[in-house]
């Protein structure tokens, strides 16, 4: 019995001695709302902004352990992806309520800079695409960039295709009647979906982003 007690005590001491660090980031919901409301139209319904924090000294995103929207009356949890990004809904009520976005990270806050990524919503990610479906996604990005370019034309690049990203950054795969996947990425120019083609992928992509003339 004495041995058992010692083992339990040793385990307890070991658990207590493990340091757990978490720093809090608090941001105004208004700042996110100004972004997400730009995607409220039908011509950009397939797109979303994914937010995260780029680590300033390492090639990765800061690790997020929790995320939620907080008002005086409620707390709304936000899902965190495996890549440490999160999305936020566009709700005028939250904007009027002066809501706060509260996040916790295991990294030092001073090492984390805001990162915003424009990407296709998860429901538009699949293994097979027709030319019409790819054209639809492309036109969504083109509409967004054209709208932003109407008053920032000297800063906005031109969309000339799509980039399909896969979970394995080292994935290389040949695709019939299409460019090959190289280093986990498939780049399609806008002329690809001019014909009646079906794109068959080895797996569902992680995300789809715009290919621009600066890519």
Automatic annotation (TrEMBL):
InterPro entries: DUF2987. It comes from the Bacteria. This is DUF2987 domain-containing protein. It comes from Alteromonas arenosi. The lineage of its organism: Bacteria, Pseudomonadati, Pseudomonadota, Gammaproteobacteria, Alteromonadales.
């Amino acid at each position: 019995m004495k041995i058992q007690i010692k083992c339990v005590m040793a385990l307890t001491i070991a658990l207590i001695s493990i340091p757990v660090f978490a720093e809090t980031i608090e941001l105004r919901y208004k700042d996110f709302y100004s972004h997400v409301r730009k995607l409220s139209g039908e011509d950009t319904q397939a797109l979303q902004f994914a937010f995260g924090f780029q680590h300033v000294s390492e090639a990765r995103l800061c690790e997020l352990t929790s995320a939620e929207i907080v008002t005086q009356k409620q707390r709304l949890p936000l899902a965190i992806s495996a890549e440490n990004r999160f999305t936020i809904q566009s709700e005028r009520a939250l904007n009027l309520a002066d809501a706060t976005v509260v996040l916790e990270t295991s990294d030092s806050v001073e090492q984390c800079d805001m990162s915003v990524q424009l990407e296709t919503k998860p429901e538009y990610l699949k293994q097979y695409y027709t030319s019409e479906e790819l054209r639809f996604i492309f036109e969504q990005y083109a509409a967004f960039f054209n709208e932003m370019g109407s008053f920032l034309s000297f800063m906005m690049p031109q969309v000339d295709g799509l980039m399909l990203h896969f979970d394995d950054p080292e994935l290389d795969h040949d695709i019939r009647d299409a460019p090959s996947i190289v280093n986990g990425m498939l780049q399609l120019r806008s002329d690809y979906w001019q014909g009646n083609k079906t794109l068959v992928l080895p797996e569902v992509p992680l995300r789809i982003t715009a290919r621009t003339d600066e890519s």
